[in-house]
Amino acid sequence: MLRQYRKEVGRYPNLLRPARFTEKVQIAKLRWRSPRMVALADKVAVKPIVADQLGAEWITPTLYAGRVLPPRDERNWPMPYVIKANDWSGGNVFVTGPEAPDWDAIEKEVEYWRTRTFGRSMGEWVYRAIPHQVLVEPYIGGAEPPVDYKLHVFDGRVELVSVNWDYFSELKRANYDRDWNRVPFVMSNEAPPYYGPGIPPRPESYSEMIRAAERLSAGFPFARIDFYEIGGRPRFGEVTFYPSSGFINLPDEYDFKYGAMWPDVLPA
Predict the structure, then answer these.
(1) Which residues contact 79 (CB under 8 A, 6 or more apart)?
(2) InterPro entries attached here (predicted)?
(3) Structural domain total, the chain
């Protein structure tokens, strides 16, 4: 973990007196151990929590959830749909048709998820604690998946929003503060912020997303809550506590700024 941080960021983290956002992500990986954290990061277990706190309309329906895929003759889910690992970030297979699914390839990918622990090499404890399941949901996008709004909540207040879009073609990213003013960095080392045409506008349901993110993250010094907007209505995506595993070469000004917003306490 420390070597990877140095490779991506260019220095070792100060774990004795962490002051940067990226350092505090490492502390979360090392010290946070909470059953509620595990439930929120589990793409299956989180759904009843969201339904209870926000309402069932915030959730994408579940077509199937189980330890393994069902027999092939039972996989008659309505197209299009997405097959996911409940304990991975980015573990997705999109089945959009019109051709028949390549079940040999899909089963190989699903077996890979089952036999690997996501985040182990990066020290991301929470994914080791989640009981593995395969999750199938309706695909809610179009030619591209819906725009992904990632709300970063510090001590109960949304302070930063990462917007990701065009996942199928060339992934683009832009970051905003709480008041939807652009900030000059993104939470990734893969590509710089995008300033070209076609940047998604502020979502119609942004104020609802803020309230939902702050409610779901209550009791945590930091959490990132992701949403989509479907037909002008917000839809819950997922929860993470380790954005990009903290291996982000942020400008010093913002690394310290968001680090200062993250209180040095353990989750409630």
Answers:
(1) 95, 96, 97, 139
(2) ATPgrasp_TupA
(3) 2
